[in-house]
Amino acid sequence: MAKSLLTLARVLFGMVGMLCVALATQWIRHRLASEQPPTLSVATLSPQRVLLPLFDLQNSNGQKFDRQSLQGHYSFVLFGYTQCPDICPTTLIELNYVTQALSDLPKNVQPAVIFVSVDPERDSPDILRNYARHFNPDFVGLTGGNYALRTLTQAVGAHYEHSLPVNGSYSVTHSSAVFLVAPNMTVLATFAAPHAANDIERDYRRIVAADHP
């Protein structure tokens, strides 16, 4: 009787051991799979996710907009100016299509779109408000001093430069990329131009699914 119980105990112990190994193997495979970067079409994931520095801008309603304003949600951030003849309006049009296509996602992962003017001398809050809302009433326009703008653009890897005035007019050369900022206020990915709504939408879904399972 004792020998039978010992044999049964050994069998049960072996079965429990095999079950533990199977569960551990499954967990490891799941963990490794979740750590694999998503396959992307146009976006580039940031190799190092560094917390954005402190900055102090204002939105088109004259309200303060700082680093904390980006916390808790995903944001598409792009830099430009309202007199931009080409890349700014076309990018905002595409991002409007993107936000519409992503409206089926839960509210907490639907992205904001933030247009940062690098021409604060001409882009007043009123001008920015009308400009951003022309593309989508939910788009946010930001402006501020050159120090704050330089702080933010350098942190994300963007740039801008004003040309020399000619007859009182000038243009602004600026980065055309769209930067995806994560809820923890780090740059998660960069979307280089040219921008196509379908590609951005597809990559955004993959990035968020990997970042926010």
Describe the SSE topology.
Elements: H1 2-35, E1 43-45, E2 56-59, E3 64-66, E4 75-80, H2 87-101, E5 112-117, H3 125-135, E6 140-143, H4 146-156, E7 160-162, E8 172-174, E9 178-181, E10 187-191, H5 197-211
Parallel strand pairs: 4-5, 5-6
Antiparallel strand pairs: 1-10, 2-3, 2-6, 4-9, 7-8, 9-10
Helix pairs in contact: 2-5
Overview of the molecule:
- It contains 5 helices and 10 strands, in the order H-E-E-E-E-H-E-H-E-H-E-E-E-E-H.
- With 213 residues, the chain is of the alpha+beta class.
- The protein folds into 2 domains: 36 residues; 169 residues, Glutaredoxin (3-Layer(aba) Sandwich), CATH 3.40.30.
- The strands form 2 sheets. An 8-stranded mixed β-sheet has the order 1-10-9-4-5-6-2-3, with helices on both faces.
- Strand 9 and strand 10 form a beta hairpin.
- The longest helix is centred in the first third of the chain and has 34 residues.
Number of strands: 10
CATH architecture of the largest domain: 3-Layer(aba) Sandwich
The structural domain count equals: 2
CATH topology of the largest domain: Glutaredoxin
CATH class of the largest domain reads: Alpha Beta
Features:
8-stranded mixed β-sheet; two-stranded antiparallel ribbon; globular; 40% helix; single chain; 2 domains; 213 residues; alpha+beta; Glutaredoxin
Short description:
The protein is an alpha+beta fold and 213 residues long. The protein has helices at residues 2-35, 87-101, 125-135, 146-156, 197-211, and strands spanning 43-45, 56-59, 64-66, 75-80, 112-117, 140-143, 160-162, 172-174, 178-181, 187-191.
